[in-house]
Design a protein that fits this description.
alpha/beta, about 25% helix, six-stranded mixed β-sheet, about 40% strand
Length: about 100
Amino acid sequence: MHLRKACRFWTDSASGEFDLRFIRTKEKQEVDFCVLRDGKVWLLVECKSGAKTPTPALIKFTEALKPTFSFQLVSQPVDIEYAAYGIRVCSYEQFCAGLI
């Protein structure tokens, strides 16, 4: 719900046209949330309860789609930047607090 609200806020505040989606391949690889900004992939978000290393699917989609931001959210307080993949792993609370 936080991402949906953020997309509406960003669109309403004339920051672009934002849309919330998800991505899944025929092979069942998926990323939980994909935010499009003006029709282009802008933000990928994968939600995991405890995995502190990026999932293979998030790595694959980040490399293929080149979003501006890519996050894996976990339940414990953590903030790790995986620069080689362009992915940041952080807590749900930290991520949601920084949305708007």
